[in-house]
Amino acid sequence: MQTSDPFIQIDNVRRAFENSIALDGVSVSFERGAFSVLLGPSGCGKSTLLRLIAGLDQPTAGVIWVEGKDVTALPPSGRDLSMVFQSYALFPHLSVAQNILFGLTVRRTAKADMSRRLAVVAQMMGLSAFLDRKPAQLSGGQQQRVALARAVISERPICLMDEPLSNLDAKLRAEMRVELRALQQKLRLTVIYVTHDQVEAMTMADKIIVMNAGRVDQVGTPEQIYTRPASTFTAGFIGTPPMALFDPVDLAGGPVPQVRQPHVIGLRPEDIHLSHSGPTARLTGVEYLGADRLISAQAGQTAFIMRTPASAPLPAPKFRFGWLAASASVFDATTGKRLPQYDFPTPSLAQKDTTHETA
Amino acid sequence: MVKREWIYAWALLLPAFVFLITFTHLPAVQTLINSLYTTPKGRRAAMFTGLGNYQQMLSDPVFLKAMVNSGIYALVTILASILLALAMALLVHRSFRGVGLMRMSFFTPTVLPLIAVANIWLFFYAPGFGLIDQIRVFFGLASANYAGQPDTALYAVAAVTIWKEAGFFMIFFLAALQTVPETLREAAAIEGCSRWTFFRRVTLPLIMPTTLFVSVNAVINAFRLVDHVFVMTKGGPDNASMLLLYYIFETGFRYWDTAYAGALTMVLIAILAAVGIGQFFLADKRVHYR
Ligand SMILES: Nc1ncnc2c1ncn2[C@@H]1O[C@H](COP(=O)(O)OP(=O)(O)OP(=O)(O)O)[C@@H](O)[C@H]1O
Ligand SMILES: [Mg+2]
């Protein structure tokens, strides 16, 4: 079972390059046996943070702890972790078996032990039939499995993954998501997973760390991140389409919260519905998605998207819309931070453990 | 339709063919034919001798000496220049301050004409005031004439070739090293792989195609690069630095024994062809091509 002691702790880590600051004072912790996802747009410093944890790069400032031990200065080999690279980093001249066993070979593991572990891992990954092939003779998904097998066979407790699924097609990616998650649970791995794909983050994570421009924007379960984004950045990043951010003036007539400071109000597309009363909007476009329809509209200065069932009638060119007061998020207009004092208490969320969800 | 394309193809190839045939293939065939005849002298016309010229070689001490020398010269220059090139490439593969300058200085010998290089080295070797002798004298050793002593002349000549070639080969190794993805190094580092193990188990196999290419070039150069022999030793002293190609030149253009020179040329071509083909077939199995 998971315990909630911080297994890996990042303490105020900063990484500056010659002409950019990739990480700017990042503090975050990762629990043992949890699947943690670093999520953020391209260039926000996810890979940099992962490489610092791996020891492939050194922080400009800050400390990295693993099990209460300062590992900041340790080389990668001293940190007892494995890593799956986005490009898989398979050795092109070695066979699948040699690739998987590479680490064990350089660490001079006993022959019998190696072949036993290889058999187990190859079986688990469905690679038994390909052990003699070269990586170039495998499909993308199979190569991905080899990279994963190489990490798994090391039997190290921590596994770092940098966008391991981004080179696969959509269907395979969906399959691998399930497999990865199952594998992590079965082996009780502590996984730190980098992605900019929110679907991957939502479906696999115990905990999501949303990053933006070298800083941690929010840490929470997928549900918390989705329903209670901590800032306008996360609100606009999570969700397809993301949360619409309204100038309160454009919502006049609806159940707007009484806020005395300059603020914006965020509404999820599925929380907006057609209504008899409330603010008016002008229809600007319709997108048919099968089960749903995405209605693009303009209310005053704010363009927004609302999700309606495909079976529902199309709104008129000018229509009124409403929402449940509890579903609105309120953000400070200047800092973009959430103003939690205007949150409605939601029983399903309030008592939830903040770090993990599934077990 | 098809016919027209063929005409186009031939028309495009024709200029190249004309030059290749006139200046490469015809002379080669002519040389082969000449090598089967005696050299015409004065009123005595060339006579067919079959393998007579080739038999003469077996009892020609200079030819035998040249063969042995060429063998040693090839072995030394090939091995040393490849190892040196690889070492230099590994050194300047990383990035550090002044790496550009270092790469350039390693490459400089390549762009100098071999004759000029030979003159520089003549100064290094010059007994009494030469660079090497000055160092020797500084350490209290006796003066030496590397290019002029029978036991060192061949190696003195070989050193120049190595110095000239290594920088050139380094460029190829450098390019090859740069195609080895950095993530492979990182993946290996996480597994606790030492730099030497990584080099042996990953880098070396991955740059094998380049090594093959470079070694073929080194072999060809070992028989081809003799310009500096003209400047430095003229094959001497006492044929100590006599190389096959230089001997061909002497026979053909100093003694005008063109038939014998032709036969010697055939031997050279045979050696190069055998080595080249052998290398490709032998190495093909051990080379990893992506
Ligand atoms: N070696 C480097 N030298 C200079 N700048 C770098 C280096 N590596 C990363 N950076 C910069 O640091 C920032 C963060 O890079 P990082 O690779 O961590 O982004 P990322 O979140 O992984 O993005 P992506 O999703 O595109 O992989 C970027 O602005 C990048 O330009
Ligand atoms: Mg990245």
UniProtKB/TrEMBL annotation, chain A:
GO molecular function: ABC-type transporter activity; ATP binding; ATP hydrolysis activity
Family (UniProt): Belongs to the ABC transporter superfamily.
Pfam families: ABC_tran (PF00005)
Official protein name in the record: sn-glycerol 3-phosphate transport system ATP-binding protein
Domain of life, per lineage: Bacteria
Residue ranges occupied by any ABC transporter domain in the UniProt entry: 8-238
Record organism: Donghicola tyrosinivorans
Keywords per UniProt: ATP-binding, Cell membrane, Membrane, Nucleotide-binding, Translocase, Transport
Any single GO CC term annotated in Swiss-Prot or TrEMBL for this entry: ATP-binding cassette (ABC) transporter complex, substrate-binding subunit-containing
Classification via SUPFAM superfamilies: MOP-like (SSF50331), P-loop containing nucleoside triphosphate hydrolases (SSF52540)
Gene3D superfamilies named among the record's database cross-references: 2.40.50.100, Nucleic acid-binding proteins, P-loop containing nucleotide triphosphate hydrolases
From TrEMBL, chain B:
Key words, A-Z: Cell membrane, Membrane, Transmembrane, Transmembrane helix, Transport
Residue spans crossing the bilayer: 7-26, 72-92, 104-124, 153-177, 198-220, 259-282
Cellular component, GO annotation: plasma membrane
Membrane-protein topology: Multi-pass membrane protein
Domain of life: Bacteria
Residues in ABC transmembrane type-1 domain copies: 67-277
UniProt main location, coarse: membrane
PROSITE patterns: ABC_TM1
SUPFAM superfamilies listed in its UniProt record: MetI-like (SSF161098)
Cell location: Cell membrane
GO biological process: transmembrane transport
Record-stated family: Belongs to the binding-protein-dependent transport system permease family.
UniProt-recorded name of the protein: sn-glycerol 3-phosphate transport system permease protein
Organism of provenance: Donghicola tyrosinivorans
